[in-house]
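User: Sorry, folds how?
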Amino acid sequence: MSRVSSNMANESIQFNLRRQENKVNNSRNQVASQQRIQQLRDDPIAAGHLVRYQSYLTRVNNFEKNAQTLSDAYALREGYMSSSLEMMQRIRELAVASANGLMQKDDLKNMAVEVDELLQQMVQNANAISSDGNSLFAGTNVKTTAFDIEMGNVNGSSDAMIVGVRYNGNIDTNKIEVDENKYLVSDNSGNKTFWAEVQQLYGGRDLSSWQADEDSIISVDGTKVKISAGDNVYSLIAKINESGAPVKASIDPVTNGLNLVTTDSHQLWLSDEKGSVLENLGIIKDKGQFPPYNLGDNVRISGGSMFDSVIALRDAMLAGDTESIGGRMLAAIDSGISNLVTRIAKSGSEFERIQQNINRNSMTAINVTQQISREGDLDFTKAITDMKMLDYVYQATLSTAGSLYDTSLLKYMR
């Protein structure tokens, strides 16, 4: 039962006015923002869906940006790799022409000049940087020059020439997220791309009585291999071969030393992660030396980079050694071309996969945007109609209030 008083009508009118003002304000906010849900209590279920959809859309857009950035890097790297392949093919033509024994020494020296220029351009390609200043072929060590060159005197030339090229990057890879917990691995190590031959390592120490002193971990081309205390050289070989690293280990039948051979053309990368197994085996120097140039003094190694093969070809041309050109050097150049073709093919296939991820994420973003629109977007026609009706009700309430404000309890007593 309501109590009749002078303030009752005023309080009732004020309450209804505030309620109508709130509805009008909410309707105007909806129209202004074009969003149906202004507060969570407007539609709790739809608001929950909307938050999840918006969060997922943000992640999908980031996945697409990641894939697009990776795609740009792959396209740029492939351009430099294709350019280097063309130069290697030209170098092979010169090697074949100079190996027939019909060339005079002066002709060979003239051809060596062109080979040297192509070598310099290849090193320039290998040290290429992207638009953001990152080295394209240095692994994850992107702020350094991928390859260092060593200049020196060469017999048959009066000018200083490149006599050595050393890899200055690393073999680490980047994992780029392109979907929920799905990653693409970006491997841009220059000592794989610009390598010519399978590398072989021959240890010079007799390991027939060797045993591991403690639990250790060694790294073979970036793959961790766990060594247990008491393991002998045969256990070590078995663990390396079963680790999945692109390296095959064996025992030398003559010296009983450890032999390592890569399964494809790349540079060996060996280090002790925990303990000193490789150092005790004489394979590497102390931990103060970093791979790949940390091999022990008694270790023999064969198999070089494309730069090594081109340098050897140039020097043989300057010396007039056609027999070496037509044998070992031509074989090394062919191996380098084959490896570079393989790397370009691998890069191309990975590029296509990246494009598929970009297209998929683009379509996913469209679908999620439609879901967000369904849950949160405003029916503009209905909202305008409702807002006009609320304005009409509000004005009617004000009109009614104006006619009631002069009413008091005394009128009921007359």
The radius of gyration is 37 Å. The chain has a mean pLDDT of 86.
